[in-house]
Amino acid sequence: MRAVSLLSEAKTATAKTTISRATVLYAQSSSETHANGGFHPSENLYIPLVHACRTTQQLKQIHAQLFVHNLSQSSRVITQLISTCSMFKSMEYALLIFRHFHDPNSFVFNSLIRGLCESSQFENSIGHFILMLRLNVQPDRLTFPFVLKSVASLVADGFGGLLHAQTIKYGLDLDSFVRISLVDMYVKLCSLDFALQLFDETPERNKLESILLWNILINGCCRAGDLRKARELFDAMPDRNTGSWNTMVNGFVKQGELEQARTFFDRMPGKNVISWTTMISGLSEKGYHEQALDLFYRMLGEGVRPNDLTIASTLSACAKIGALEAGVRIHEYVSRHGFRLNQTVGTALVDMYAKCGKIERASQVFNETVEKGLLTWSAMVSGWAIHGCSKQALQCFNAMKSAGIYPDEVAFLAVLTACSHSGLVYPGRSIFNSMRDDYFIEPNVKHYTCMVDLYGRAGQLEEALSFIRSMPIEPDFVIWGALFCACRAHKNIKMAELASERLLQLEPRHPGSYVFLSNIYAGVGRWEDVERVRITMKNRGIEKPPGWSYIEVAGQVHSFVAGDKDHECAGEIYAKLEEISASARAQGYIPNTESVLHNIEEEEKEDALGSHSEKLALAYGLISTPLGMALRIVKNLRVCGDCHSMMKYASELSQREIILRDIKRFHHFKEGMCSCGDYW
DNA sequence: CTAGGGTTAG
């Protein structure tokens, strides 16, 4: 019999299973004997068997046997089958089993409602609760927590009060777990007043439940943005645990109050891995990448073991500032401590290597990653895209579809970006169309921007403009900006002015609007107009965001802003810059003054250009690393035309590879050439 | 072993 082979598999799978072949044979014979008796001693033997299952296939074998042995209507075994299905994330099969069960009781319903909730099928979970009521099956204290969680997750406001009423009807509203779930639900539905009221009315609680309820409420205040109320509650708490402190730290982080978060974090006793991860990912999310890295190392120093999420957050900080050496160190830590290359860790590593300029290494880790999910594939596609490897990006995208992964809007954006960087107008358009036609994904504003970029870079400006006019959504600032850049690159002043007008209408306070406008005037030498724009900006108190660049030297990240004189080696940096500039000029480099915002004397313009942050980072890299070593620079804005040109000369003169990442993509400079083919 | 519940990272 199949059960025997299943049993032997089950026995190897778990040491807990100690059923013998004889008991299974007994199970079979006894179920035949008691076929219609309503009492099946064999149920007691099938239940541990279900628990021993390790695959859905094995569950199916048991389900089949239940039919053979007239046990298919045993609610005890079916309950077990359904919950095990939920554990395996095969809710479709769980639903099938449920449909073949004639007279479900509360146990069967509870396991199904719970499984559906835990696999995020919230509507379905609520739907089965309603079915339960309709069939007059009484819900109990274990039904409500999951239904309430489903309602909270859906933010289904309408159901909240109804369910609360139901708990009262069944006399369960005072049950401690039901009550905690109710408060949590009201918090998530943003009905803080109801939550507080329930909290106040809650009678005698044990200490643990009490702390939990306080934490839930504090979290609710944080979500609602009421940090003062959160603090008040926190201060009023009779007892606190690590979770209470973590909730506060998280609340401050989410509201962007990093300093407050840090104060709480530093003050809290007994930090656990969640405390550290919350703080690290918060710092990284808000742009304090170096601090995030420092904190990670401090965490290791204090002997706290990071988990997958800590690793992913820290790697993401490395990725943002191009800290390759730090990233490699973390990769080594990951390998040494036996982390599996699962979706979380694998994807973070792929992304880190791609964004730190090591696309081949990214591809290697991608191949080693055992659980490739949608995010892993998307990271790889976008990695190829930012490196300008459109062929690989398209191949990867197709391989992803072949692997049975449905691309989402992010994956489509990545592959479209690849097309736009390489001027692949035809494949780009066809992918854009297939998005709606084959995958029923409605393109969002970013996809439209990408298409404008695709036509625009390829010089098809009219096409780009008519595309904008035919869009079903209102073109925004970014879309007109893309058109504007294309116009500037292809010297279409008339259309550039049109785009620029729109930009100013849409975002009169956005510094970009002015920079764009000033750029066209500068391009055609209308300096009085450039000056006018500059004065308008100043009068309206609008400032251009500073451009900064990062370079990592010996594991230490150095950042520069334009005209920066703060670095300890400033003197040497400027001397080196002067030197490269002179040699480059001797080789034919002409400073491209179109990229300057102000009308200043030619010589001064050169100075302003000459101290752009990426040039400072370049000079620092040249003086502080061994000859021949590649330089990796990250810039937060797009690289300007003049710096791009200078980098080409510098790579030739210094005989070094320079890998510059700007906000859009990578530029690999080698022997006077750039991988973008000057098309960016 | 008729299942089994809640907050804080993502």
UniProtKB/TrEMBL annotation:
Ranges occupied by PPR repeats: 105-139, 210-244, 272-306, 373-407, 444-474
Lyase recorded as keyword: no
GO biological process: RNA modification
Pfam families: DYW_deaminase (PF14432), E_motif (PF20431), PPR (PF01535), PPR_1 (PF12854), PPR_2 (PF13041)
Top-rank taxon, per record: Eukaryota
PROSITE patterns documented for this protein: PPR (PS51375)
Residue intervals of the DYW domain: 588-680
Gene3D superfamilies given in the database record: Tetratricopeptide repeat domain
Keywords noted in UniProt: Repeat
TM region(s), chain numbering: none
GO molecular function terms attached to this record: mRNA binding; zinc ion binding
Signal peptide: none
Family matches, as InterPro entries: DYW_dom (IPR032867), E_motif (IPR046848), PPR_At4g14850-like_plant (IPR046960), PPR_rpt (IPR002885), TPR-like_helical_dom_sf (IPR011990)
SUPFAM superfamilies found in the cross-reference section: TPR-like (SSF48452)
Family named by the database record: Belongs to the PPR family. PCMP-H subfamily.
The protein, known as: DYW domain-containing protein
